[in-house]
Amino acid sequence: MSHFRVALLVLFVSARASAQGLKPDSSFIQLAGNQVVEQYNKAIYKQAHVYDGNEYITHDFRIKVHPFYRVDSLQTGTVFYNGVRYDNVRMLYDIVRDELAVQPPEGAYRIRLRNEHLTSFTIGPYTFTRIGADPLFGGVSIGDSAVGIPAGFYEVLHDGRVKALSRRVKIVHEDISQGFYKADYQQKDRFFVLKEGVYHEVKTKRSLLTLFPDQFKILRKHIRSQGLKFNDSGREEAIASTVRYYESLP
Fold first, then answer.
1. What is the pTM of this model?
2. Which of 4, 10, 21, 191 is the most buried (most CB within 10 A)?
3. How far apart are CA 167 and CA 95, in angstroms?
4. 36-51 pLDDT, tens per residue?
5. Which residues are 31's β-sheet partners?
6. Which residue(s) pair with 200 in the sheet?
7. Distance of CA 45 to the CA centre of its chain
8. CA distances for 28 relative to 5, 6, 32, 36, angstroms
């Protein structure tokens, strides 16, 4: 029964009972009303424009390592798409292609959202923003100060006057040296600091400290006292911690 028919039935029963001087069955009215609301919400949810896009195409099945951010299972998050916020969206972030794949409710397929309409999203506790998005929708446009930073989605590690960002990337590594095709994905994250409107890529401790000449010695001491490392496994936390500490200084 459609939600429209249920609504008519609710109105009919209520009106008939009132005309006959009878008290309508409140439990039935409540049940029918709940069905109307539930079916209406489902109808609206299915029509959400966040599911407007092309079908997401899977990668080469021979590559056993998944191409997604952190995990290969659907995560729930929030999407800002065409200037509208959508909550409780099930998604996967493909960091090989820099695409967000969302799964419609009751759908066995996935939709690849159009990057030019996607301003930002959260996937689990992690927040991503698109550099190069339309500023009318709250994105960050690329100007002269952003020359050298690739357009795309960046994880926000610290969001303050100074921002720490990470560009999550996986690249395909192919090997045919043993006479057969073998491939996997290798993650090559890049890190940036946005200070006074200019993006700076950070690879080493010195490249980070030189961005803050006024607090160079204090930040160096903080890095030592916290045991922060700028190797592949520790660089992310070292950058985020140092930027957070810098903003806490008077």
1. 0.76
2. 191
3. 9
4. 545 544 545 545 788 8
5. none
6. 193
7. 19
8. 15, 11, 6, 12
